[in-house]
Design the sequence.
């Protein structure tokens, strides 16, 4: 009896295997195998493919497939005249640049189209408290950094990654093909994802990577929940043209960001005469701003960096009123309003604070010009666009159970407010960490789709991302209060103790505490640090919390910088 | 929640000690678990679809064995460290012996490797993926079924063609380099009798030694299977109050990480005992001439064998990282609980 069972088992299994072999064979006409299937050819997916393509172990033992719904040949052939720029521009931190260099992709980036950020100026739109943060102040283990980050068009980066990918034979790039559905091949008790593509192909994936953006179909397949909310805010982007900085001033390498209660507006230099804007504001304002004539938007942008907050609020109201009334505000009407407002604030038309100043053009610039971005002259046609902003973080980066063999990177895993310019950088750091994880597992004969193999990736990234994301989220919330300055300052005072921890964490993240060769020069650092001092200043200005709290904050800040500079 | 509901009754059954249960240790132990199928037979008998039911049954067992967040999680997590040690040691010796640049990824390629007590196939699959021609043996029929089923789902493992007459290579377009893998339900002694001595470049037995009744005889059989100049790798648990506390008191009695009764303290073996075993162990030079070669370990200083002859390395579970760590060479205290051991058969 016992013996029968034993023999029966052995025979059954063997028979089963031969049958399943036959079954596999029969279906092989349409089921392909790939070891890593990356869904999404955005910056994160392309960077992962590039990193995998540059690993010898991966090249020898694996097949990597990237699937993108869009037309990547357009990206590969992307070209613009030297004086025109795409509106999607990201600040690439030194750490991200280093990664892109290591995988041999940065050399394909057209550097003449990128702009170094050597200094950041951030100020509070209500109190005017300001801090500047420059690359010259940063030193790390005795090494100086020449820039905080480099503004790069997303397309410039994506094109570079695609060119890099052309070199490597182990990565197959499939574009203009959509992943239509994902099912589970649950044979022999171990679930493998089966991807059904719009061109009829079916791919069985050892590891399925979701680099498919915020609405990630891979995340849905994996059954991973995402935690978060939409900010009641849209980000307007546009390419701005302006005169070059006067020879008496530093060149256009300074990034400016002003925190208004409606959201921050950022001016990011990309060439001597062009910069990009990210203006986060309420959705109804964003709609009104997108509807006006370009010249009106130009004046609004200039005013948003200069006019006192009360008057900005007034301009917003006027804009909405006209927009809702069906007769958008005209250039003349707006200029009249601004002139009147400047006059009532005693802003001289020749001062740096004047949005309509004719003085900035030639000769010696007015005093304080360095504190404000160059006056915008025009907007590159077709570059005004807006995006809803949201905070979201997946509950986990690695799928389990029925959703096994899945992993998330980039916006599929997390989205963050753009105020610290970190979104894309976090995605690149994910790609770097996942590529390393796959490499390590493969070089020990591991199954790269297994949970055990993927854990190091999740450990390396989840909390790092979370720290940065919550710091950025807090900054957004701290500044979006519409309360009166004193009330505002009081609430800030209560927040200070909490802020210290998250900001410290954020600083460490940007400094790359998990990697020794990382430099701290990122906009994130600048912003985090600026905010801290800003908070301190506002508090002492308002004299609500007084010297004590302010002292605490400032010494905390010094402490952070000491820690930071002592890190290698 | 994550588990398919159909497996829940089974899982429940597994929680009962009397039911079929491929325990972490039982799976590696050398006595068969097959007779335990009895309890499960009732539902199978009288049915005309016995085979399908049985496959379904083993598929479920396989998915439990291979559930990395489940009961066998600790074992899964230990595997990368074992592979790291095997790879590093082979690489070190190869580099010692050739002037050519040996590539890391190729050290196992083409070697004949035996995995004794292969369980669900964790180590065997990794060895095969690294290019070794791998034979996994286990005295448990059920483990062999689990291992075979699992490997058959992985297109980079050439299990079917090796185990069966029908060739199935290139089933899927896109599969790069296949590792050859065979599973067999047998014992080391049987294998030795059939294959004869000096059949493998590498012989591994991970977490097995602490379960066998006659470790000397077992070590002897394994050592005989190693080719001249070949390697023997094992992992086991040292015998001291700390290891008792961690593996039996804490893991079995207190936390129930593993089933109580899994380990027997008196069966634990200390590194020094294995070292002294191989200080006197000599392989027969040839079967015809009844003489023996040099002992496997010839040079020992302060209890530590020469680096090119043998090595012991501790492995420690780091709970906050959730992973095992291979201790650096010479960190003696780390060998107080779980450890890996490597010894090389002299070339003669
Ligand atoms: C206004 C704004 C300003 C920003 N500024 C910065 C900045 O200064 N610095 C910074 O670092 N980041 C910035 N970001 C964030 C940055 O743009 C994103 O983090 C980044 O684009 C995310 O890259 P990704 O590759 O993860 O996803 P995505 O770029 O969203 O790519 C996902 C891809 O997946 C493809 N896809 C989806 N579903 C399927 C399917 N079913 N089949 C096939 N393909 C599919 C899509 O076609 C898409 O190409 C900003 C974002 C916004 C909104």
Sequence:
């Amino acid at each position: 009896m016992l013996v029968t069972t034993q023999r029966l088992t052995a025979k059954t299994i063997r028979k089963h295997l031969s049958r399943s072999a036959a079954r596999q064979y029969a279906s092989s006409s349409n089921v392909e195998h790939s070891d890593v299937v990356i869904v999404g050819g955005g910056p994160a997916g392309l960077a992962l493919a590039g990193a995998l393509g540059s690993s010898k172990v991966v090249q020898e033992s694996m097949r990597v497939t990237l699937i993108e719904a869009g037309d990547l040949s357009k990206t590969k052939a992307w070209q613009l005249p030297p004086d025109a720029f795409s509106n999607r521009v990201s600040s690439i931190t030194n750490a991200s640049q280093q990664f892109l260099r290591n995988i041999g992709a940065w050399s394909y980036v057209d550097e003449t189209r990128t702009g170094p950020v050597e200094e950041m100026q951030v100020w509070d739109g209500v109190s005017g408290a300001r801090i500047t943060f420059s690359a010259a102040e940063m030193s790390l283990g005795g090494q100086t950094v020449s820039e905080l980050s480099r503004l790069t068009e997303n397309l410039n980066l994506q094109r570079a990654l695609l060119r890099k990918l052309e070199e490597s034979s182990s990565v197959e790039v499939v574009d203009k093909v959509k992943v239509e559905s994902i099912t589970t091949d649950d044979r022999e008790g171990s679930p493998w994802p089966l991807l059904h593509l719009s061109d009829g192909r079916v791919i069985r994936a050892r590891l399925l990577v979701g680099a498919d953006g915020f609405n990630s179909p891979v995340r849905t397949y994996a059954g991973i929940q995402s935690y978060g909310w939409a900010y009641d805010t849209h980000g307007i982007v546009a390419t701005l043209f302006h005169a070059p900085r006067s020879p008496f001033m530093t060149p256009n390498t300074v990034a400016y960001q002003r925190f208004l209660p409606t959201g921050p507006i950022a001016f990011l230099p990309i060439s001597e005469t062009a910069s990009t804007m990210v203006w986060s504001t309420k959705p109804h304002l964003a709609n009104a701003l997108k509807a006006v004539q370009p010249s009106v938007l130009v004046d609004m942008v200039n005013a948003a960096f200069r006019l006192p907050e009360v008057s900005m609020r007034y301009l917003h109201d006027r804009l909405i009123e006209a927009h809702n009334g069906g007769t958008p505000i005209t250039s003349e009407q707006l200029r009249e309003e601004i002139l009147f407002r400047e006059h009532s604030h005693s802003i001289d038309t020749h001062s740096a604070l004047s949005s309509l100043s004719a003085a900035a053009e030639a000769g010696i610039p007015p005093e304080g010009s360095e504190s404000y971005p160059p006056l915008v002259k025009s907007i590159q046609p077709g570059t005004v666009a807006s995006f809803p902003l949201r905070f979201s973080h997946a509950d986990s980066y690695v799928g389990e159970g029925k959703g096994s063999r899945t992993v998330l990177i980039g916006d599929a895993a997390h989205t963050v407010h753009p105020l610290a310019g970190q979104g894309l950088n976090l995605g690149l750091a994910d790609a770097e960490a996942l590529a390393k994880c796959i490499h390590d597992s493969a070089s020990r004969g591991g199954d790269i789709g297994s949970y055990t193999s993927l854990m190091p990736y999740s450990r390396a990234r989840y909390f790092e991302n979370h720290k940065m994301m919550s710091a950025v989220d807090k900054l957004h919330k701290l500044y979006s209060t519409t309360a009166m300055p004193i009330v505002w300052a009081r609430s800030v005072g209560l927040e200070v103790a909490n802020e210290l921890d998250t900001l410290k964490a954020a600083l460490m993240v940007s400094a790359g505490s998990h990697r020794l060769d990382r430099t701290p020069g990122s906009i994130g650092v600048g912003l985090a640090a600026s905010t801290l001092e800003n908070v301190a200043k506002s508090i002492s200005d308002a004299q609500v919390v007084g010297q004590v709290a302010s002292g605490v904050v400032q010494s905390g800040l010094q402490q952070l910088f000491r820690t930071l500079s002592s890190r290698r | 929640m994550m588990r398919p509901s159909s497996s829940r009754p089974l899982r429940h059954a597994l929680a009962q000690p009397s039911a079929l249960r491929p325990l972490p240790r039982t799976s590696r132990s050398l006595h068969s678990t097959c007779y335990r199928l009895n309890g499960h037979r009732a539902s199978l008998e009288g049915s005309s679809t016995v085979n399908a039911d049985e496959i379904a049954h083993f598929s479920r067992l396989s998915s439990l064995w291979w559930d990395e967040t489940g009961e066998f999680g600790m074992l899964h997590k230990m595997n990368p460290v074992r592979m790291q040690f095997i790879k590093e040691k082979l690489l070190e010796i190869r580099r010692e012996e050739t002037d050519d640049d040996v590539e890391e990824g190729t050290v196992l390629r083409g070697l004949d490797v035996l995995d004794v007590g292969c369980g669900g196939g964790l180590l065997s699959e990794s060895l095969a993926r690294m290019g070794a021609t791998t034979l996994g043996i286990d005295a448990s029929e059920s483990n062999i079924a689990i291992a075979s089923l699992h490997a058959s789902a992985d297109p980079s493992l050439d299990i079917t063609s090796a185990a069966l007459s029908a060739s199935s290579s290139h089933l899927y377009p896109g599969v790069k380099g296949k590792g050859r893998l065979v599973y067999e339900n047998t014992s080391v002694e049987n294998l030795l009798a059939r294959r004869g001595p000096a059949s493998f470049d590498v012989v591994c037995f991970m977490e097995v030694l602490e379960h066998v009744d006659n470790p000397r005889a077992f070590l002897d059989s394994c050592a005989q299977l190693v080719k001249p100049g070949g390697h023997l790798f094992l992992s086991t648990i040292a015998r001291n109050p700390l290891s008792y506390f961690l593996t039996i008191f804490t893991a079995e009695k207190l936390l129930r990480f593993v089933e109580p009764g899994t380990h027997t303290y008196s069966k634990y073996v200390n590194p020094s005992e294995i070292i002294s075993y191989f200080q006197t162990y000599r392989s027969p030079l040839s079967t015809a001439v009844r003489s023996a070669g040099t002992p496997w370990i010839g040079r020992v200083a302060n209890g530590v064998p020469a680096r090119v002859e043998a090595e012991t390395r501790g492995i420690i579970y780091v709970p906050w990282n959730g992973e095992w760590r291979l201790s650096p060479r010479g960190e003696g205290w780390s060998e107080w609980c779980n450890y890996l051991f490597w010894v090389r058969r002299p070339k003669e």
About this structure: The mean pLDDT of chain A is 81. The domain at 231-386 of chain A is CATH 3.30.9.10 (D-Amino Acid Oxidase; Chain A, domain 2).
